[in-house]
Write a structure and sequence with these properties.
The complex is a heterodimer of chains A (494) and B (100).
Chain A lengths: L8 H10 L4 H14 L6 E4 L1 H16 L11 E5 L26 H8 L3 E6 L39 H8 L5 E6 L5 H7 L2 E4 L19 E6 L2 H11 L29 E5 L9 H16 L3 E5 L4 H19 L19 H12 L2 H14 L4 H22 L5 E5 L15 H5 L6 H6 L3 E8 L5 E8 L4 H15 L10
Parallel strand pairs in A: 2-3, 7-8, 7-9
Antiparallel strand pairs in A: 1-3, 4-6, 5-6, 5-10, 9-11, 10-11
Chain B lengths: L4 H10 L6 H18 L39 H5 L5 E2 L2 E2 L7
Antiparallel strand pairs in B: 1-2
The chains are: A alpha/beta (494), B mainly alpha (100).
């Protein structure tokens, strides 16, 4: 039954509902695939029993003639940033190693309520801080993709949702949750040839998601098709009184509303995204994307987002500032690691615990955040960054006068070998130069695979939409998907 | 270099992260490079703009004044709250002695 692992969300759900196979057979196939793929290091913890338990419930419900949920029978990977009741949740950090939540995050609960099951907790960059999945306390995730003719060099699956992207691309999970603070769903999706959407800020509850930068953090689905993303996002989203920034509005039926007919739609091409250092192949895929959308009936218009260049530096003030505040909770008192040196007092315990429990990138960001929020620097750094953020958001608002969605590359380059950028934090940050503006503005954005570059590595195209218009984003994504015909998949070496 | 080693040591102390001399030596130029790079925000004229406070305009809701309106965030969960504590005694979090 190995072919079951080639199926996506909709095919599994419909196949289970029609009785083509049982949910248990699906769960068993994916459990076996997860076990066989330990070389990818995509999972921190596998939970095969959880997957089987959920599958058996779906099979029983079907046998009893009960209504099945939108994700019924679909086993998924859960990024280890979502608290899961009774299952270790680490944010890929040492400081939370051994932390077993006594409650379930809203998003994961929504997915279980829709009939999904959990294959395990997926590896990520530590506290979601990173763009290559090299900052995890539990080791790098290795992309299933390899450069053609590049030997066996391990490639980055992107980050921070690198376990999610690797698992979905390797077909050891049909779909996975991701979270996106400054590109952490879209960039790994682009690196691995899959789809991922970050919805409008507030669509998915942040309750029970380990916080990185609360004004930016948004959960979203990662899967191999636009349709699968639409189904899964519908199951994840919804108002939650436990998150004060949760959107109190109805969740449209995105899957039912999918249409690749873009007649009458205008697609904006932001001239500022044509940056130095962008790969030729990326520019080529962007041109191709314009042709595909034109073919779907859309009109292509040039637009300007003048503050694009300043989005990334603003992000690297705002996100660390919020992180330094959010991560103050890791004190060795309430949960997680405690390092109490002999004879140490409370303050020494805090400092020793945080020294041992945080990795380098997390320390770097907490220190930057502490500095930009400190007396005397607050106005020059933090306030100025929040003003620039307002300008970045205003750029988008003005653009909507001329277009309905925006098309841009997801990343400036394809995936790179693990270790290539670890010595230069700034070079690593530049990975998210195209992804961060939509995060700062809180608008929905998705990455869809476009083509392979000359080295056989996937490239993604990004679609950015108006607030609350996930449908417009998904529809443009579908138009690209249908025309790109991206069928490439990594050869199994693991 | 926008920040020197003693400044990094001071921030680390404010952030309650112990750092060795070797770490300070390594971190100071890294943080300086990042801060030098974000300095470019100073070029942007922001005199006419207010800092962003909410990414999507939203009003802050008030919840009903009801005890345990949602059992998951309500009270009477002491054992759950303490379950992950490195040290818990007599129904409290345990910390090293703080008063002489």
């Amino acid at each position: 039954m190995t072919e079951l692992t080639n199926l996506g969300v909709r095919e599994i759900r419909d196949g289970v509902a029609q009785g083509d196979f049982t949910a248990r057979e699906v769960a068993e196939a994916f459990n076996a695939a997860v076990e066989a793929a330990s070389e990818l290091n995509a999972f921190i913890v596998a939970t095969p029993d959880k997957a089987l338990e959920a599958a058996d419930k779906v099979d029983a419900d079907r046998a009893a003639g009960r209504e099945l949920g939108a994700m019924a029978g679909v086993p998924i990977g859960m990024k280890d940033l979502f608290c899961t009741d009774g299952v270790q949740t680490t944010a890929a950090s040492h400081i939370l190693e051994g932390f077993v939540p006594r409650y379930e995050s809203t998003v994961s609960q929504n997915l279980w309520d829709a009939g999904a099951g959990m294959l395990g907790k997926l590896n990520l960059d530590q506290f979601a801080m990173g763009s290559s999945n090299e900052t995890s306390h539990f080791g790098n995730v290795v992309s299933p993709w390899r450069k053609s003719g590049g030997g066996n060099a391990g490639m980055s699956p992107g980050g921070s949702s690198g376990g999610s992207s690797a698992a979905v691309a390797a077909r050891i999970a049909p779909a996975a949750t991701g979270t996106d603070t400054g590109g952490s769903i879209r960039q790994p999706a682009a690196f691995t040839g899959i789809c991922g959407i970050k919805p409008t800020y507030g669509r998915c509850s942040r309750w029970g998601v380990v916080a990185f930068a609360s004004s930016l953090d948004q959960a979203g689905p990662m899967a191999r098709s636009v349709g699968d993303c639409a189904i899964m996002l519908g199951a994840m989203a919804g108002f939650d009184a436990k998150d004060s920034t949760s959107l109190q509005m109805d969740v449209p039926d995105w899957a039912a509303g999918l249409s690749a007919d873009l007649k009458g739609r205008k697609v904006g091409i932001p001239r500022e995204y044509r940056m130095d250092g962008t790969d030729e192949a990326i520019l080529e895929s962007w041109e191709q994307g314009k042709n595909w959308l034109r073919d779907a009936g859309a009109e292509i218009v040039d637009i300007s987002l003048p503050h694009t260049k300043y989005a990334l530096p603003a992000y690297y003030i705002i996100a660390p500032a919020e992180a330094s505040s959010n991560l103050a909770r890791y004190d060795g008192v309430r949960y997680g690691l405690r390092d109490l040196p002999e004879g140490a007092g409370l303050q020494d315990m805090y400092a020793a615990t945080r020294e041992e429990g945080f990795g380098d990138e997390v320390k770097r960001r907490v220190l930057i955040g502490t500095y930009v929020l400190s007396a005397g620097f607050y106005d020059a750094y933090y306030n100025q960054a929040q003003k620039v953020r307002a300008l970045v958001a205003r750029d988008f608002e003005r653009a909507w006068a001329d277009c309905d969605v925006i098309l841009a590359p997801t990343t400036p380059t394809a995936s790179f070998p693990l270790g290539d950028k670890t010595d230069d934090p700034l070079a690593m940050y530049l990975n998210d130069v195209f992804a961060v503006p939509a995060s700062l503005a809180g608008v929905p954005a998705m990455s869809v695979p476009a083509m392979l570059n000359g080295e056989g590595l996937p490239l993604g195209l990004q679609i950015v939409g108006k607030p609350f218009d996930e449908q417009g984003v998904l529809n443009a994504g579908l138009a690209i998907e249908q025309r790109a015909g991206f069928e490439a998949k990594p050869e199994t070496w693991w | 270099m926008s920040i020197d080693r003693p400044t990094v040591a001071k921030i680390a102390s404010l952030a309650r992260i112990k750092m060795t001399d070797a770490e300070l030596d390594r971190m100071a130029p890294e943080l300086s490079a990042i801060l030098d790079w974000v300095e470019q925000l100073g070029e942007v004229d922001t005199s006419e703009v207010e800092p962003m406070t909410a990414v999507i305009p939203n009003t802050l809701r008030l919840r009903a004044d009801e005890v345990d309106a949602d059992p998951r965030t309500g009270g009477d969960r002491r054992d759950d709250v303490l379950a992950n504590a490195p040290v818990a005694e007599h129904g409290f979090f345990g910390v090293p002695k703080v008063i002489e």
